[in-house]
Design goal:
alpha+beta; two-stranded antiparallel ribbon; 4-stranded mixed β-sheet; Glutaredoxin; 6 strands; single chain; about 15% strand
Length: about 200
């Protein structure tokens, strides 16, 4: 046997009994505990991934804005004396997704919205489900929503202040939000106050 080919390098010590090549051998209970820990860690990571995706979808990818339910928006607006900012959107709408990822994720936009408005996302489900709830149809009729995205600023009593259709970029969104925050309701307002 040629010792030069099998001789250990440096200060090697032969493995001790109960070890595997210098590595620690785990007992059955240690291996089981490690396996359980690995599964718990994997489950926690999966849960985090799923909840982050779901909450983003539930929020309509609404970014940093703190949205309220559209059905609660009018009452919240009356209580806070702030106008409602309705974001009429749809899942299939490409420009809506651009607004979500470009506009609502901007910290300056979110700060203006949260400070000046009661923001409410109104998600149209006509294409996906063939129908919308009656309150949603009524809201779209009241503010003449014919395209998505449509932003409607309404006084706490429901009278229309301003409407913007489409998404023309963050700067125009900021200008719209800043000018509409303190504007009075339109005098030629075709939208009646809700009953």
């Amino acid at each position: 046997m040629d010792r030069t080919k099998t001789a250990p390098l440096g200060n090697s010590v032969p493995p001790e009994p109960g070890t595997d090549g210098g590595k620690r051998v785990r007992s059955g209970s240690q291996a089981k505990l490690s396996s359980v820990f690995l599964w718990v860690l994997l489950a926690a990571a999966l849960f985090r991934l799923v909840t982050s995706v779901t909450s983003k979808k539930d929020a309509g990818a609404g970014g940093l804005v703190h949205w309220v339910s559209p059905t609660a928006a009018a009452a919240a607006a009356r209580a806070s004396n702030k106008p409602v900012l309705y974001d009429f959107t749809a899942e299939w709408c490409g420009p809506c997704h651009v607004l979500d990822s470009d506009g609502w994720t901007d910290s300056k936009v979110a700060a203006i919205v949260d400070a000046s408005y009661v923001p409410a996302r109104v998600v149209d489900r006509m294409r996906e489900e063939g129908t919308n709830p009656p309150w949603l149809d009524e809201l779209q009729r009241r503010y003449r929503v014919e395209a998505f995205p449509t932003l409607v600023v309404a006084a706490p009593d429901g009278r229309e202040i301003a409407i913007a259709q489409g998404y023309a970029g963050k700067q125009k969104l900021l200008a719209f939000l800043q000018s509409s925050a303190t504007a009075p309701p339109r005098t030629d307002n075709p939208a009646p106050a809700p009953r």
